[in-house]
């Protein structure tokens, strides 16, 4: 029985030793596996990071290109809208200026017509004034002419007047080389040259 116990003990010790050795080998294998997994994960993480960085760079480049296209399109549209608005403003301004100049031209035409009428009226007034002044001048000139004739022909007078002084009335149109402008039947005052009837 003692031998059996010793054999069992010895067998148990050998088994324990084998198991310890196997456990140590297993732990080494597990550690190696973990180290390999960590190394693989690290390289995979680096590769993933590089891939992500590359993808982000591509996305950034694509977004920048799209934004540049949108900006260029917006600028082209804005320029087109600005040109259209400028053209409409120029056309409206030109139409309004043309209408304003047409109105001013019409008003100036009316003013010129009014000035022409006023000039004609002024000429008429000047002619009328000349006529009225001429009547006075002719009357005075006629009196002077009559006085001169009366002085040159002192013995002549109206019929039936002995040695009448000046010329009056109907006789005023008959003396002198040129006819006097006083009409027949008009009593021309002789200013003391005529003898009263």
Q: Which tags fit this structure?
A:
mainly alpha, 0% strand, rod-shaped, disordered C terminus
Brief summary of the model shown:
The chain is 77% helix and 0% strand. The protein is mostly helical.
- Which class of secondary structure composition applies to the elements? mainly alpha
Instruction: Give me the count of strands.
Output: 0
Low-confidence stretches: 156-197
The total of helices stands at 1
Q: Give the overall shape.
A: rod-shaped
The ordered H/E elements are H
Average pLDDT value?
76
Strand content: under 5%
Rg measurement, Å? 70 Å
The percent range for helix content is over 70%
How far apart are the first and last residues' alpha carbons, in Å?
Answer: 215 Å
Largest sheet: none
